[in-house]
Recover the amino acids of this structure.
């Protein structure tokens, strides 16, 4: 089984001590996000085909990567760097720090280990199309030779992301919008061309209606990439999470509402204050990432 850690929260940035303890124990208990019922996920030798980490700050998990590499367990780091203003991303690491960490990871573990995510593309008065064009060009140039792929998507405006964005827009006095598909596709294809010119392969995550230009569909849980890193085939099947998703089957060990980066567009956080509280409630020695939620 491939372990996803985690598209529900940033485990490397905030919960690496917990993950190290769980790997040593050989298992983690993961609560179903809907029923709350816990189930056991094996993390012991012979149970894990590989790991996919999702993060904006991989530095706290460096010791985990080193241990996995020493044990011959392949892993890929899906590393998000967008460089948006703090009104959209409150507590993410400085862009230059994130870029330096990606370059360092690629040097230590190989360029196939890291995938850069410019995700999501968000339309606002703070981030107009020209911002994205210049930003992607700058970041692509900085990462060329260290990564071979950049994954992009247009922001999906869920009810909670709309509420969180509108709250930040009122507080920080900016405008934002959710464009029509044709406008989204046009800008995304421009960004794909910019990345491609820098030598990166642009991929689009789970939005087949917006594909075109230099884009190919993304496989964020990429069994072929993990197999190449491992030097052996992986016996896993494709099982996407939603229409258009080409990911391999995986088990995610994270919890929603537990990432305090403060990104207004985040699909994994309902209330940002709840995420800040979750970090305080977290027990690094616990079997689950988060204890049962208190009654509200």
């Amino acid at each position: 089984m491939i372990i996803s850690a985690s598209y529900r929260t940033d485990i490397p940035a905030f919960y690496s001590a917990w993950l190290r303890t769980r790997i040593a124990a050989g298992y983690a208990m993961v609560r179903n996000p809907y029923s709350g019922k816990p189930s056991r996920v094996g993390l012991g030798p012979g149970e894990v085909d590989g790991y996919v980490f999702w993060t904006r700050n991989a530095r706290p998990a460096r010791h985990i990567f080193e241990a996995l590499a020493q044990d011959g367990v392949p892993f890929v780091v899906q590393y998000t760097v967008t460089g948006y203003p703090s009104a959209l991303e409150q507590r993410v690491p400085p862009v230059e720090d994130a870029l330096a960490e990606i370059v360092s990871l690629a040097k230590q573990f190989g360029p196939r280990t890291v995938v850069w995510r410019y995700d999501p593309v968000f339309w606002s008065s703070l981030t107009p199309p020209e911002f994205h064009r210049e930003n992607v060009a700058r970041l692509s140039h900085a990462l060329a030779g260290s990564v071979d792929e950049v994954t992009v998507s247009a922001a999906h405006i869920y009810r909670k992301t709309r509420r969180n964005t509108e709250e930040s827009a009122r507080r920080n006095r900016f405008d934002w919008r959710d464009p029509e598909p044709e406008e989204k596709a046009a800008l995304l294809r421009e960004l794909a061309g910019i990345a491609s010119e820098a030598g990166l392969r642009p991929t689009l995550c789970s939005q087949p209606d917006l594909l075109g230009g230099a884009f190919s569909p993304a496989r964020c849980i990429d069994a072929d990439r993990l197999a190449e890193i491992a030097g052996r085939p992986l016996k896993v099947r494709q099982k996407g999470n939603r229409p258009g998703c080409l990911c391999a089957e995986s088990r995610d060990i994270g919890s929603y509402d537990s990432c305090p980066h403060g990104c207004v567009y985040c699909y994994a956080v309902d209330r940002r204050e709840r995420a800040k509280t979750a970090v305080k409630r977290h027990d690094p020695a616990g079997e689950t990432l988060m204890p049962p939620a208190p009654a509200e």
